[in-house]
């Protein structure tokens, strides 16, 4: 499992996160350290938000996505129906990895 990356620890509103050099990015729109990170795609059609919520002495991480489908073709809408289940599996794996890193960092001196 990959460790926490130092380069991502000093985000600011307006920063653009990219998964690759020539890939569209996600711009940081809302940043409330230790509580909320909300990004919007550079195209403006996708918002992804992470929120930490204190709950009975522990912390819960919530992840929410919204993708605008206005003007989408029937094929694009069908593609989303196919993509959503796979996306849920990948997102669950990502969230479990975040949980493991967070728990490991608390256990480390």
Give the helices and strands, then pairings.
Blueprint: E1 16-18, E2 25-32, E3 36-41, E4 46-55, E5 58-67, H1 74-107
Antiparallel strand pairs: 1-2, 2-3, 3-4, 4-5
Which descriptors would you attach to this protein?
alpha+beta; five-stranded antiparallel beta sheet
Tell me what you see in this structure.
By secondary structure, this protein is α+β, with helices and mostly antiparallel strands. It has one domain (6-107). It has one helix at 74-107; strands spanning 16-18, 25-32, 36-41, 46-55, 58-67. The protein is globular. It starts with 15 loop residues before the first strand and ends with a helix. The model has no long low-confidence stretch (mean pLDDT 86).
Describe what is shown at a glance.
This protein is an alpha+beta fold and 109 residues long.
**What gross morphology would you assign?**
globular
- The multimeric state of the shown protein is single chain
The structure class reads alpha+beta
Number of helices: 1
Number of distinct beta strands: 5
Question: In terms of per-residue confidence, which ranges show pLDDT below 50 for 5 or more consecutive residues?
Answer: none
Give the strand content.
25-35%
Sketch the major β-sheet.
5 strands, antiparallel
Overall pLDDT score? 86
The domain tally reads 1
How far the N terminus sits from the C terminus, by CA atoms, comes to 19 Å
Query: From N to C, what is the helix and strand string?
Result: EEEEEH
Give the strand order of the largest sheet, numbering strands 1, 2, ... along the chain. 1-2-3-4-5
